[in-house]
Amino acid sequence: MYSSRSASHKYQDSVQTLDMPIRKKIILYLALLLLVLLWFIGVKNRDPHQYDNMRRTLELYEYQLKESKEHMAETMRLLGRRDCVTWDPDLPVIYAITPTYARPVQKAELTRLSHTLMLVQNLHWIVVEDSDHKTALVSSLLTETHLNFTHLYEQTPAEWKHKPKEPNWVKPRGVLQRNKALAWLRANLNAEVDRGVVYFADDDNAYSLQLFNEMRLTREVSVWPVGLVGGLMVEKPEVNLTTGRVVGWNSQWRPERPFPIDMAGFAINLQHLLKRPEVKFLLQVKGGWQESELLTHLTTLDRLEPLADNCTKVYVWHTRTEAPKLNMEDKLKAKGKRSDDGIQV
Ligand code: UGA
Ligand code: MN
């Protein structure tokens, strides 16, 4: 019994092993047939333009890839070559301090100023926003300049903010921002080692490149004429040509000020400033006295270093940009629209 049962088992096994490949083959042929059928249906139904479209899309991708490759190469080239002139370790650094605040013309002002500063050798731009944060506008502008910069912010309290109809000189501007920059200099530079000059470069003035060459070797405090300020074509120190010393001023507006001079008209030696850690600007100072208040703690009339050919040349102008008329923009805004939607101006 045992042996015959085992024989039939064996037979069934061999039938199974013989059958399997045939079934598999049939399934395989059927599957192939189905595939051919599907392919045929696919080919029949295919839009003859489809290949053309695909080819065109591929060509477009190829072109775009080539474009971005070229763009990348150009960006790398620009990054490798600084836009500002090369750094000379032996040359004193000019620390230009610029307070700035958000208004319609801000980007225009900062673009113009940054493009001037890009042409100045060994310059470090300290930009201090009158804001409670670093804005995207100033951040991206600074990154794009390739200048050496420090980006800070310090907000002027509301009660010290200039109101639209208030006369200019009622409240001082840029005070806390300049102090923030002075604190940065004191925290990051060494009075014994670092050589440089500090200059307060407001964002709206017009600057000649010659100005920066003049101020770079300031020993203590240097001065020069400033165009279009103090109600005059030029406000300037008066120089005794025999001694080469400053003896007075031609200022007409508040001439009783100890240093009747605009913020744009002087520079301070870095070490001279760092060795006087208490020197800073103050909010509670009479209108137009900011410069005098600061300079009184730094120098005296007879120690001033007159530059710009004994103060006979104008290399900086106290230009002020007119606020643009935006009456149409206001009308748009009333309708819930704006012209600068999605575009930074
Ligand atoms: C004149 C001087 O040129 C300034 O250096 C001085 O700060 C000012 O007077 C003053 O008495 O306080 P003016 O042209 O009238 O300047 O002032 P702005 O150019 O309007 O402001 C001076 C700087 O402070 C600019 O860089 C400006 O962007 C900035 N500022 C102005 C602020 O940071 N916040 C403000 O609310 C206004
Ligand atoms: Mn100004």
Q: What can you see in these coordinates?
A:
- The protein has 345 residues and is of the alpha/beta class.
- It has ten helices and 13 strands.
- Strands 3-2-1-4-11-6-12 form a seven-stranded mixed sheet, sandwiched between helices. Strands 5-13 form a two-stranded antiparallel sheet. It has a two-stranded antiparallel sheet with strand order 7-8.
- α4 links the parallel β2 (123-129) and β3 (148-153).
- The longest helix is centred in the N-terminal third of the chain and has 44 residues, at 2-45.
- Residues 1-8 have low confidence and may be disordered.
- Manganese (II) ion (MN) binds next to loops.
List descriptors.
binds manganese (II) ion, 42% helix, binds uridine-5'-diphosphate-glucuronic acid, seven-stranded mixed sheet, single chain, disordered N terminus, 345 residues, alpha/beta, two-stranded antiparallel ribbon
